[in-house]
Write a structure and sequence with these properties.
Shape: globular
Oligomer: single chain
Helix content: 10-25%
Structural class: alpha+beta
Number of helices: 8
Strand order of the largest sheet: 1-2-12-3-13-16-14-15
Strand content: 25-35%
Distance between the termini: 11 Å
Radius of gyration: 21 Å
Largest sheet: 8 strands, mixed
């Protein structure tokens, strides 16, 4: 049975882009027993080597990013309210009323706060149709201004105050599945390799930083490691809920298996090998869990494809063979995300 407790701990561990210290320590604790060599580079990426039976002709890198989106304090008012900016792609529309945790410089524990704006009764009718921008929102910590200014500094980061929870049938909801779930998969790969015996060749696992603000860790780690083949583990949008145009975005269903990307940024041979691996086992249970979906990286994704973890060396050295395997994630890049296919090994009560 998969270690869902580890996934919960990863999602609950703060790791805002540029401030991944806590989640990095947790990942190091988990992967070090399985690897011959584990390093942290200058940017903060974890680079782990799992030795194979023989020296490989080519280097394979598995990558997932450990950072998450969030907020950052930009100003503290005389009344003790915090003004903030986004770190990564935060949807301002769903922030009002959200509980948050401020990781204050001068507090051992996070400070619970609430995102506020003017009450709807005081907003002019024409303004009610508009989303309040993040720089017009404030966070109330519910304490005197003097206390706030003693504990909080400009630049302190803020995570969303929502935790990991299982619900419905085989579903889970949490912040930061993007991409703590991908890191969890990478750890599980190392664990499986350790239990099954050494693989034919070496595996390099990179848990990268600062993906949400420009895939910086993916670019630097790939440049430094110079792999021949790279496979990224990430999440992707589910499209099986109302309002999504499947003719434009494809059909991606929570519960129908991981998604293997295909498109101009994905090497065809790597794509075919990933699909073949997922379909190779004849056991019904394995087939059920490894059923795959295909996703395409086409024109409508062109604005963010160059920033994907899978696009590891678009601007560096001479390129590499790359692939992307993703978990389906409902409401991706909002404060609470959900997915389900990894929870299907329980009974009907989810135990």
């Amino acid at each position: 049975m998969a270690d869902y407790e580890l996934l919960e701990r990863l999602c609950g561990c703060p790791g805002i882009s540029g401030r991944e210290d806590s989640v990095r320590e947790l990942i190091l604790q988990e992967i070090t027993p399985y690897c011959a060599c584990v390093e942290v580079d200058r940017l903060g990426n974890i680079i782990a080597l799992k030795k194979g039976k023989r020296k490989p002709k080519e280097k394979l890198m598995l990558a997932a990013h450990m950072d998450e989106i969030g907020l950052m304090v930009t100003y503290i008012s005389d009344e003790g309210f915090l003004s903030v900016s986004s770190v990564g792609g935060v949807d301002a529309a769903i922030l009002p009323g959200m509980r948050v945790d401020v990781h204050a410089s001068n507090s051992f524990e996070p400070l619970r706060g609430v995102v506020g704006r003017k009450p709807i009764h005081l907003i002019e009718p024409d303004e009610r149709k508009n989303v309040t921008p993040i720089d017009k929102l404030v966070i109330d910590l519910g304490m005197p201004a003097k206390r706030v200014k003693k504990l909080v500094m400009v630049g302190d980061v803020i995570t969303f105050g929502v935790g990991f929870e299982r619900f419905g049938k085989n579903m889970a909801v949490s912040r930061a599945f993007d991409d703590k779930a991908g890191v969890w998969v990478a750890v599980r790969v190392l664990e499986t390799l350790a239990k099954e015996g050494r693989a034919p060749g070496d595996f390099i696992v990179a848990a990268t930083v600062q993906e949400e603000i420009g895939t910086r860790g993916a670019i630097t780690s790939a440049y430094g490691l110079d792999p021949d083949v790279a496979i990224a583990f990430d999440v992707t949008h589910a499209t099986d809920y109302p309002g999504i145009d499947k003719t434009k975005y494809g059909k991606i269903v929570c519960g129908e298996g991981p998604v293997i990307a295909r498109g101009p940024n994905i090497n065809p041979a790597v794509f075919e090998r990933l699909v073949a691996a997922a379909e190779a086992d004849d056991e019904a249970e394995v087939e059920r869990l490894l059923a795959t979906q295909r996703n395409f990286l086409a024109d409508h994704l062109s604005s963010w494809v160059p920033l994907m973890t899978a696009d590891l060396r678009r601007f560096a050295q001479c390129g590499l063979y790359q692939g992307l395997a993703s978990l389906t994630d409902g409401f991706l890049q909002v404060e609470e995300e959900f997915f389900d296919e990894i929870f299907e090994d329980g009974d009907e009560d989810g135990e």
